[in-house]
Amino acid sequence: MVSVIMPAYNVGAVIGGSIQSVLDQDYRELELIVIDDGSTDDTASVVQKLAQKDGRIRLLQQENGGVSAARNAGLAAAKGDFISFLDGDDLWEKDTLSRLMAWQEETGADFVYGRTEEVFSDGRRARIGDGATEGYVEDFIHRGVELRLPFHISAMLVRAEVVRREGLCFPLGVPISEDTCFFIELLCVARATSLDEVVSHYMRRDGSATDARAWDPKDWTWQADIYDLVRPFVEAHRPEAVEALSCVQAYLHYRFILRTLRHGFLQEAQETIVKRRERLRSFSEGKGKWRDRMKCRAFLALSGHPHILKAIASL
């Protein structure tokens, strides 16, 4: 059986379609765990009405704690042999689970993923990711400095035993890239195998949390800081990936400073340069594009001149 975990927050207007895309699966051996994360709209009542018609739906309700807390509650409640995720505003193809399960049976992999199509409100569509990559976490690092995960959380299937044995979960209090933490740890203990076919649709809604959030350095610094959270796990389970992920983190610190300067947060950029000087130096002297490494060296050399830094960042 597959346990499908669906976090939901104020998606009463659209969650019915997401749930129906799960119930319509031609693979019937599933349970759908919907976690209402303190919604203030009619999300819970929509789910309850559908649950009365199909016993495979379970509704869990909790105070608002964020998507990580909701997914963790789903993981704790899951009874299936395999786990999959679908957010309360995204959609599956009718044969998503059957294709993922067939690929898992053929390969014997603990972690399989398909492709996701991003659907924008103006009708545009685009595939997420640059192509199929297989292997462990270090195999997903591009040019030695950039972690590229060519899959979306709505297009994966993972053996539940791996999640339970390793205690995998989503970090709390992380405003962005929380699923990257989960995937890094998962890719340390399970080899990924790719089904290079679209199996899910990520619906970009106007006014969604991701689209509505203004750029704020307090949020985006987490793209680099999450590597501090996962480092102990990586050191214990995949030590051969530690150096590669350190290079990725150093590059992300550089990228954070670049974006911070371009958005006009000069003080935050200077503070990060001081705080992350050693990691920035390691990037400037290591891998990566020559142009980026030279900019990073300039940031280090001119950290006391914010307006010059901003001019360099815009080049």
Describe the structure.
The structure is a single chain. With 315 residues, the protein is α/β, with parallel strands linked by helices. It folds into 2 domains: 211 residues, Alpha-Beta Complex (Spore Coat Polysaccharide Biosynthesis Protein SpsA, Chain A), CATH 3.90.550; 97 residues, no CATH class. The protein is 46% helix and 19% strand. It is built from 14 helices and 11 strands. Strands 1, 2, 3, 4, 5, 6, 7, 10 and 11 form a 9-stranded mixed beta sheet that branches. The longest helix is centred in the C-terminal third of the chain and has 21 residues. The chain starts with a strand and ends with a helix. The model has no long low-confidence stretch (mean pLDDT 94).
